[in-house]
Amino acid sequence: MKLKSKTNSIFIDGQWRDTDGQKTSTVYNPATLEAITEVAYGGKAETEAAISAATRAFQTWREMTGRERSRILYKAHELMLDDAERLGEILTTEQGKPLKEAIGEVKGAASFLLWYAEEASRAYGEWIPSSKKSKRLLVIPQPVGVVGAITPWNFPASMITRKIGPALAAGCTVVLKPAPETPLSAIEIVKIMEKAGMQKGVVNLVTGDAEAIGNTMLNSKDVRLMTFTGSTEVGKYLMRESADHVKKLSLELGGHAPIVVFDDADIDKAVSLALSSKFRNNGQTCICANRVYVHDSVKDAFHDKLTEKVEQLKIGDGTEEGTDLGPLINEQASHKVQKHLDDAAAKGADVVCGGAKWNGGLDGHFYQPTILSNVTDDMLVMNEETFGPLMPVQVFSDEDAVIDKANDTDYGLAAYIFTEKTSRAIRVSEKLDYGIVGVNDVFPATAEAPFGGIKQSGVGKEGGHHGMDEFLEMKYVSMGID
Ligand code: ADP
């Protein structure tokens, strides 16, 4: 993929800012560590200008009908699908995931635009029967206002449309700050919005100094809502700093997903699902399985089949046909995997397969898909988010005990259970302290359903009509009548 040495990446009030003469930062291909391009390194001034543009645009954007707003979102959805292959290539180049996953992500990203194009004209209010004859009570949904959106590098396209789709549908305007590792997908999405006919100032993009951009958003009384996907640490910071202006918040933070394989599970299916859950995007997904509990009576079959499949996974450059695992995003990510592995090994875990960095002639930070057995609850990997291809497997024998273990974490994003018994599926789903439970399913994220965590995994939902509710205020109008 050939890109220009410099790419304009700041879009304010319908204008791309030239990167010439401006401070820039480099975007790298994580598979080769080659520089792909330079993007603008914006900060306070650019963010203030973007917030002003979004504040002005809000006055007209909010006045449009839902149907008028939806036309632009429909168009953007179409444009995104038409260009899915090229967008997928850009995504793989900056993020590393296998091309087929990247194209899948682009299509998934487009699906959020479609869903919220549909929802734009369905922001219903309420007419509440009054207890007094002399009154009429109405609830009118209205857009929150200017939204500050901060997105991560692991899903550079879908995390953006999942936020700006409902925000725009609701009538909000947006200032978007993508992750510094993956600004190129964000630039492409904003270009699509422009091409789809979005009015100036409705969507603004600022790349650069995360702290300066974030703080400018936080310090602005005009930014009424912060929507963020990323680490729990930064999420807590945003939450604290949102207090001064009492901003609304929608936070999708870290997770530590358990998989529980019950004795009545279909083992072939369980192996294949566990594999997809753990190694998709090389383990760099907030809903990736971080730990696996397998019932004693099926442990051997599960273990053998899993090991055989993991050993067949192909590591390499995501653009190469047949690659299952691309690089980790950076050296720090690789260190974390190594730290969790070393800690587990020191505390008595066995490395069943993998267990080392992969050196296949590429400069990126690759790690072998790794299974650990004989893991204990005190190991880091059983408690901290690994965000890499490390899969610890522990054996259990009692349903209540394994539910307790699954719940014994500060996180509460996603949990998975594999069972063929409906009654168990319902019983255990109800007892798991998680925002999302996958029953024989490890791909719960979809445009039409509410995705979100509880506990320290976040607040608010993305997807479904619930995702749009985040960007709406319910105004109550109490009318006295004669
Ligand atoms: P990760 O460690 O996975 O990169 P982060 O939470 O650090 O997760 O990053 C997620 C997003 O938050 C990125 O866009 C990043 O630039 C941004 N970010 C990081 N620190 C801050 C901050 N202090 N204020 C605002 N945004 C931040």
TrEMBL record:
User: Any idea of its EC number?
Assistant: 1.2.1.-
Task: Check the record and name the Pfam families matching this protein.
Answer: Aldedh
Keywords of this protein's UniProt record, alphabetized? Oxidoreductase
Ranges that cross the membrane: none
Molecular function terms, GO-annotated: oxidoreductase activity
Query: Which Gene3D superfamilies does the entry link to?
Result: Aldehyde Dehydrogenase, Chain A, domain 1, Aldehyde Dehydrogenase, Chain A, domain 2
Q: Does the keyword DNA-binding apply?
A: no
Residue stretches making up the Aldehyde dehydrogenase domain: 16-477
Which InterPro entries does the record match to this protein?
Ald_DH/histidinol_DH, Ald_DH_C, Ald_DH_CS_CYS, Ald_DH_N, Aldehyde_DH_dom, Aldehyde_DH_Superfamily
**PROSITE patterns the record matches:** ALDEHYDE_DEHYDR_CYS
PANTHER family associated with the record: SUCCINATE-SEMIALDEHYDE DEHYDROGENASE, MITOCHONDRIAL
- Can you say what this protein is called? NAD-dependent succinate-semialdehyde dehydrogenase
